[in-house]
Amino acid sequence: MSELVTGEAVALELRPARLPSRALAVLLDLVAAMAVYVAVTIALVVSTASLDEAAQTALSIATFVLVLVGGPIAVETLSHGRSLGKMACGLRVVRDDGGPIRFRHALVRGLIGVIEILMTFGIVACIASFVSARGRRLGDVFAGTLVVRERIPVTRTGFVPPPPPWLAGRFSELDLSAVPDGLWLAVRQYLTRMQQLDPQVGWSMAERLASDLSERTGAPVPQGVPPAVYLAAVVQERQGREARRAFGSDAAQGAPSAVAPGTHGPAGTAAAPATPRPAVHRQPQPSPQEAASESSGGERPAESPGGSAGERPGIGFAPPA
C-alpha cells in the first residue's frame, strides 16, 4: 500500500501497480493501437494512390503520430487515466495526490512513452519501474502521476473466530478492568488475521498476547487451553459484558401476556387475578312422564319458588318428546 496525501491533507492508501500488470496493459494497448494503425494505413493507401511519393510519406508519418501517439493521449484524457489495457487489468493513472489526470499529464506520459516504450522496446520503462519504489516509469516521474490498482482482492477481515462451546462462561468472573485498549486492539487484530500468518509466528504471537492478558487480569491461562482459543474466549466475554451494559437496562418491554393467577409478570409485579366467568345453568330436561303429559295436553307442574339456592330460573324451552 502507498500513502498519498491530497491537497486537503487527507491520506489515501492506494496500491501501486507493479511491472507485470502494467506490461500486460501496455501490450494490450499496443495491440489495439497497431490494429487501428494498420486499418487506417490501408484506407489511406487505397484512397491516396494517385498522390506522389512525398505526399504519401507525409501522410504515413502523420498517421503514425496521430494514431500511436495522439490516440493513447486522447484516450487517457477522456477516460481519466483508463485506457483499454488498463481497464482490462483493473488499473488507472492518477496524480501524485490521488486526483484524476488532465490533458497535460497524459501528454507528458505519451511523449516520453514514445521514447522509453516504442523506441527502446520497453527496456527503459522496465528498468525505471524496477528502480522506482512505486513502480513508476520515466513518463510517470515527469508527469507527476502514478498507476494504481482499482480492483483489490477481497480478504476476510474483522471476523473474530468464536471460542469452543466448552469454554462458554468460564471467564465470567475474570477482572478485565485493568486491560488497556491498546492490548484489546492488538488481540483483535491478531484474531482477525491469524489465518494469514505462518503457524509458528502465529503461535508465538498468541503466547505473548495471552501472557500479557493474563498479567493484566491477574489470572493465569488455564491448563490445556491453546493461547489463541484463550484470547478468543476472553474477547467474547468482554463483548458480552459490553452488550449487557449497553442494552441490559434498556430492554424493550413487550405487550402484557396472559399470566396465571398468583404468578409474576415480566416487570416483576403480581399479575391481576383472572375475572371469573359467570356460571351458565342449563335448563333441565323434562322427565318422560312430564313429556308424556305435555304431549297429551297437560301442563308441566310449576317449580316451587323455594328451589335450591343459587339456581337461576331456566330461560330455554323443553323440546317435545
Automatic annotation (TrEMBL):
Membrane topology of the entry: Multi-pass membrane protein
A Pfam family annotated for this UniProt entry: RDD
Compartmental location: Membrane
Chain segments carrying region Disordered: 241-321
Gene Ontology CC: membrane
Superkingdom of the organism of origin: Bacteria
Record domain RDD: where: 17-144
TM stretches of this protein: 24-46, 58-78, 111-131
Biased composition, class Low complexity, residue ranges: 258-282
Keywords on record: Membrane, Transmembrane, Transmembrane helix
Name by which UniProt lists this protein: RDD domain-containing protein
